[in-house]
Write a structure and sequence with these properties.
Elements: H1 6-17, E1 64-71, E2 86-90, E3 93-95, E4 99-102, E5 107-114, H2 123-127, H3 130-138, E6 143-149, E7 153-160, H4 163-171, H5 182-193, E8 201-208, H6 219-228, E9 231-237, H7 240-246, H8 275-282, H9 287-297, H10 306-314, E10 318-320, H11 325-338, E11 342-346, E12 355-363, E13 369-372, E14 375-378
Parallel strand pairs: 5-6, 5-8, 8-9, 9-10
Antiparallel strand pairs: 1-11, 1-13, 2-3, 2-12, 4-11, 6-7, 12-14
Helix pairs in contact: 3-4, 3-11, 5-6, 6-9, 6-10, 9-10
């Protein structure tokens, strides 16, 4: 979705009108990166500023673009559908599809990786995903940047098309502090993706635990920014319980809150904190409803589902890993899907109100399932 500031846009139009008198009118009105809401032909929007925790992008709707992944009953990607097989509904009203494509677009990808001391037992396996990321996610036409996060957020590698450089950075991921500012890291990734060229799709791949500790950004605000900048979030969830179980005993001693052998802070239903319990807890939430609520309110998620909610909210994939060998498999699956998605675009009705708009996409093919972003967000006009 594109962000336009009315005052700046008006200035661009004025500069074009006075082009005969200006020495370099084009310098005043530069083309901004395309979001899910594309500009009208012949209209040059003002440049989008970087996103941060305190500034939101303002936008006007001209075209909504939604990537769609379709799989058959066995989980295999379906790649032989046509435009006429799809139906798009905006707030319940079917819209004509005006843009249709299948894969092939170059990608701008930001890999966001947790490097906190809490997941130190899993870092060696995470580092080994570097070669899978460069081969299947970047492939031959993508550029990538790498961000690490713990109790701080660090840009480890700016955008490059050199896969060897990216792989070397991932192979050498450092161990950091004990915090996990995942929302701040996601916001940082979105801010640099918003500046990439219009011909590239914008992808955020997050590898980390779902729990956030101390970010200035809220998940709902991050998802709003992702929608406005046309960023699809893919995520690989690291199991907090698995990290605890695999930690070396000498690295951490829990504070004694009660008599020896007692557990004064019980888990739900008194069960032990195992990876299986964690998975069950995550399965009891309507994630699409949670995503819609976060987009509407800009608030934070409650519970261990934030990464999966972020992926659902933007139409991306979430993979929850339990064993080291599944990290590489998860990255490979994400890469395969990224290069086999359909892209649908339509022009919504005029005079769109601000707030959350629901998108529903169906396909005329029995026995298949699809995944797409559940809606899009339009911020309120400036006060």
């Amino acid at each position: 979705m594109l962000g336009f500031r009315p005052a700046l846009l008006a200035l661009c139009f004025l500069s074009l009108a006075l082009g005969a008198l200006a020495l370099a009118p084009a310098a005043r009105c530069q083309e901004a990166p395309a979001g899910p809401l594309r500009p009208k032909p012949g209209v040059a929007p003002d440049k989008i500023p970087a996103l941060d925790a305190k500034h939101a992008i303002k936008s006007e709707v001209t075209e909504v673009v939604a990537p769609v992944a379709v799989r058959d009953a066995s989980g295999e990607i379906v790649m032989n559908l046509k435009k006429d097989n799809f139906h798009v509904f905006d707030n319940g009203v079917e819209q004509p599809i005006q843009h249709f494509d299948l894969g092939g677009d170059p990608l701008s990808v930001v890999l966001v990786v947790e490097t906190s001391s809490h997941i130190e037992p899993m870092l060696p396996a995470i580092r080994k995903t570097g070669i899978i990321f460069t081969q299947t996610v970047m492939a031959l036409t993508s550029e990538a940047a790498v961000i690490g996060f713990d109790d701080d957020v660090t840009l480890l590698q700016s955008f490059t098309t050199d896969s060897d450089t990216v792989q070397a950075v991932v192979n050498a991921l450092p161990e950091g502090g004990s915090g996990s500012h995942v929302y701040d890291a996601m916001a940082r990734g979105i801010s640099i993706l918003a500046k990439r060229a219009a011909v590239r799709r914008r992808i955020l791949v997050v590898v980390g635990e779902a729990q956030d500790t101390g970010s200035e950004n809220k998940l709902g605000g991050v998802l709003q920014q992702a929608h406005l900048a046309n960023v699809t979030i893919y995520s690989i969830g690291l199991s907090t319980a698995m990290a605890d179980l695999r930690a070396k005993p000498e690295q951490y001693e829990a504070p004694q809150l009660g008599p020896p052998g007692t557990f004064p802070i019980p888990t739900p239903n008194g069960q032990p904190p195992t990876p299986e319990l964690e998975s069950q807890m995550q399965g009891n939430i309507d994630l699409l409803a949670a995503a819609a609520w976060l987009l509407k309110t800009g608030m934070n998620a409650v519970g261990p589902n934030s990464l999966e909610i972020a992926s659902r909210a933007t139409g991306g994939m979430h993979v929850n890993t339990k064993k080291d060998r599944s990290f590489q498999k998860a990255m490979d699956e994400i890469g395969g899907e990224l290069h086999a998605e359909y892209t649908l675009g339509y022009r919504p009705p005029g005079d769109e109100p601000s707030g959350y708009h629901e998108i529903k996409i169906t396909v005329d093919r029995p026995g298949v399932t699809l995944r797409a972003r559940p809606g899009y967000y339009i911020p309120p006009p400036p006060a």
